[in-house]
Design goal:
Layout: E1 4-9, H1 16-30, E2 36-41, H2 47-54, E3 59-63, H3 80-86, E4 90-93, H4 96-101, H5 106-118, E5 122-127, H6 131-135, H7 139-151, E6 162-166, H8 180-196, E7 204-207, H9 215-219, E8 226-229, H10 236-250
Parallel strand pairs: 1-2, 1-8, 2-3, 3-4, 4-5, 5-6, 6-7, 7-8
This protein binds phosphoenolpyruvate.
């Protein structure tokens, strides 16, 4: 049985000192978790400060993006081997802000997934439809296309190295959480596509305006393996409440 993942994406929000302060507030809870994996993705300049605070605590440290090559003339990028050497265990890839604000293509996202996995990181592949795509009835085709673009071909079929985060673009940072039936439907569809691509069961997270108020309902969907959380993960009290909710609910559920 896989533990529930609660991953905080701190985006470009906290300085190194602020990130260290937040990590320090979260630290006591980390040691008490039995059924939950706590993951954090600070900004690149805060990674060192958070790593120093976390020490040997059972918290996974990750990056918010990564390149695919080990080194080269790629100004502004960070290589997966550099992140791995630093102590990161995962990297977010294809976050909607990368896809929509920075226009990262499917091809680029696919390269990043492969680069992360090839260099020892777990790739958290973020996928999700825009509001216009949902309203046009294209949610399934968009999700299938995003999954096939990144997970097709010769990518190693390892359950350890891949996590999917279903994040409807319209729910990220908007306060509009997807409904339970919408989450359940999208998650089982993602499971079927992943299975069709001959992957073992992968953890599938939900992301999009997760808060302590809605998290237990979201976790009641059996195919939800945890959450990728932006806003609420910046607040220690809320992050801790999410972890506690996960601990309570994960007691009686089998996460695939
Ligand atoms: C995210 O950044 O992936 C996210 C889901 O943000 P928020 O929780 O703020 O919607």
């Amino acid at each position: 049985m896989r533990k529930t993942i609660v991953a905080g994406n701190w985006k470009m929000n906290l300085t190194a000192a602020e990130s260290a302060r937040l990590a320090r507030e979260l630290l006591p809870v980390a040691a008490t978790l039995n059924k939950t994996e706590m993951w954090v993705a600070p900004s690149f300049t805060a990674l060192w400060a958070v790593k120093e605070v976390l020490g040997t605590a059972p918290v996974s440290l990750g990056a918010q993006n990564c390149h695919w090559e080990e080194r080269g003339a790629y100004t502004g990028e960070t290589s997966p081997s550099m992140l791995h050497e630093f102590g990161c265990s995962f990297a977010l890839v294809g976050h909607s802000e990368r896809r929509h604000v920075f226009k990262e293509s499917e091809e680029l996202v696919s390269k990043r997934v492969r680069g992360a996995v090839a260099h020892g990181l777990t790739a958290v592949l973020c996928i999700g439809e825009t509001l216009a795509e949902r309203e046009a009835g294209e949610t399934e085709s968009v999700l299938a296309q995003q999954l096939k673009a990144s997970l097709g071909g010769d990518l190693v079929r390892s359950a350890e190295k891949l996590v999917i985060a279903y994040e409807p673009v319209w729910a990220i940072g908007t306060g509009k959480v997807a409904s339970i039936p919408e989450i359940a439907h999208a998650h089982s569809f993602i499971h079927s596509v992943v299975e069709g691509l001959e992957f073992p069961q992968l953890p599938i997270l939900y992301g999009g305006s997760v808060t302590p108020d809605n998290f237990s309902d979201i976790l009641s969907v059996p195919t939800v393996g945890g959450a990728l959380v932006g806003g609420a993960s910046l607040d220690a009290a809320k992050f801790i409440q999410l972890l506690r909710t996960s601990e309570g609910i994960s007691e009686n559920r089998a996460v695939a």
